[in-house]
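Dissemination and training. As part of the outreach component of the grant, students in the summer workshop were shown how a complex can be specified as a set of sequence lines and then modelled as a single object. The example used during the hands-on session is reproduced here so that future cohorts can follow it. Participants entered these lines:
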Amino acid sequence: MFGMSFYGWILMPAVILLAFITLYPCFWMIVMSLLKVSTRPGMKNEFVGLANYAGLFKDSLFLQGWVIQGKYVGISLVVEFILGFAIALFLNNLKRSANVITTIVLVPMMIAPVAVGFLYLYLFNSSFGWYYWFLRSIGILRQGSILGDMNWAVAAIIIADVWEWTPFMALIFLAGLKKVPLDQLEASKCDGAPPIRRFFDVVLPNMVSVIVIGVLIRFMDIMRYIDTIFVMTTGGPAGATKTVSYYLFDVAFRFFDLGRGAAHGFVLLLVTIIIAQAFVNIMKKKGVQR
Amino acid sequence: MFRERMSRRNFLSTAGKAALSGGLLVAVGGIVSKPKVWAGGSNEATQAAKKAGGADLWRQYAGTKLIFMSENTPPSSAIKARAKEFFDLTGMEIDIRQDVLSTVQEKVGIDLKGGSDAYHLNYAQDKPMGTLFADYWADMSQFMNDPTLPQDPEGYDLDKWGYRWLDVCGKFYESSKIVALPYDNAVAVMFYRLDLFEKYTKEFEKQFGYPLVYTKDTTWKNMLDFMKFFNTGKYGVEYGYGFQGLEGWAGQLDFQRPLYAHGEWQEWDMPDQFLGTRNPGPSRWGDDQSVMTLGKMQQLYKLAHPESLSWDWSGVNNAFQTGKVAMCVNYGEFAASVEDPKQSVAAGGKVGYGMDPKGEPSWIINGKKAVNATNYGIGGIAINGNLSKDMQRAAWIFTVWATSKPLQMSVLKELGGTPTRMSVLTDPEVVKAMKRPTTMPNALTYPPILEAVKAPHVVPGPKIPKWNEYATIQCIEIGRCMQGRQGPEETAKILKKKLDTMHGV
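and obtained this result:
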């Protein structure tokens, strides 16, 4: 029936369940975003149309949250990409103990983000933090505080993110490097191409799909990521680390303004989808097969 | 191998049987573990309970399991350690789940607003919880004086607790409904290094013309001098003072102290600050006093430890314990850790406790008084209003037990609690413990606490339904001002605009 195989039918309940748990909340989020959700028992929700969306664009914390989110996501992704690629190249060229070293490199991404938050909270602490002491000792840090300073606090949450998630990028890129055709590399070697030329003309073109997938997954992840910020700075000092996703948490679960929170969440989802789609389009243009 | 041995029909049949068995198992398990409520619902049961009296009243819900979602505070940990005593008395199991306040807020909020009853009892911290959720908690006045329920022999009148603490955590926007009983007090007092003050008083006097002593008349202007003196690093600490301006509740309370100290300034005019109001109207931000105090606070923050905007009570306590700062305003419950030689370089009688700094008269331009502005968090126990009547009654039994004098007294003696009953705070044994040497280090903070939590020094509010949003906005804007990103006048104007917009004014 319906041209579906036996295995298709077997999978059907799981697919229906998955669709339900994904689409149902999404549907309710959209409905809720059009309501002023009651704040007291016995009161009814009030339909307010697009007022919650209009309100977002008058909310300076929401607008400023996008700027902070842009810095946080942009800088983290670029640094993780560069470091991840470098680490992947290093691991790919290891002759001995490659498995052991790869495992060690991957450890940070296996730690719970909240634990990473606490780790960096202590490392940056001015009373007993080792990073604080180190940065002060070598003269990079002139201020008496990392997490209490508006600029340094942003740097701190980026450093924590880079530490935890660079190994993820390295792992994806390492998998990509293993798939670079050896015949092409050998041919370029025979033609006398230096290593840098080989990297840009052979390795990189063969890695485009892996790079796009790695960056896409990481991008979608970091867009909704608040765990370490929650522990390290709670969005402060003075709102300096209050990304738009952190502010969403505030609006929905601290202010309990659920209608506004739903509108906020829907806008965040839309932006994430649009940018993710742009990545997919790049993949298609480059002729990457799905 | 699996594929070869099992046909599709067999596979589906086996899977179906497994699912059926699993479902039955879950259903039976649910029946077995479902709490049994044995009395209270019907008239007959109520009459029977009334007749039985005494121990039977405590045991009428034996077999019930209660879940209490609380902040990870010392009394919650202490009560958790005594859960067996509660079980022996009532036959009820109490499961105390603890977390940081923001997580408690999130979980309890979803539970209450979703019409659910996953958490039977809630930690009712006055402002961050009560202002938002009070309407969802059960009215406890229906259980008070109910002869079919156990009652506290002292009663629950206002004077049985610290100064208006029942109003602070138990009443919101109206006085007729009581939604929580006070069980945890965290009052802000000054912690200062008495040893350093005594040791360097002459040097200080040479430089500033008056002795280095801390009294209840010490003003925020004196604090500037203390900071200048200790910030030189020559006198045993790195900085004179540390604030706790971390965004959220810590920052809101911290900024409120100097603001209120100068001319009793508050954001909104309310008929009764202890009860709060649903519609506070236009904010006072932007008036001359608010701009003046913000300017002075900028000076104070400039001299305070640079971490001040990232510290909450724990952060500043760490700094005090490790000798980074000579002074900090912190909550009484931290005395136990400060006085512990294993954790603190300030232990061994080196710390003095006093009321929070007084407003500096020359900084007041609104014609009102200078006070030792003192604020707090009074945590209560509230009952989830979504519960059935029987479960609410069972939860009341726990509330009575957890806020009783004997329990508060024993917790204070053994684990360093934060009592709320006046009978405990004025008990001769506790009064004796307020002086060194003491076996109850938290009691060392009670003399300034008992003086500071009364009018005119105490500042309980603002109790408004949008408290969390207000605290966030205020912390961000004042934080920017303290970092020198915007001036006091600009900050006050922004706050006025944002807070009025928030309230639709």
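Chain B has 23 helices and eight strands. Students were then asked to discuss how this feature might be tested experimentally.
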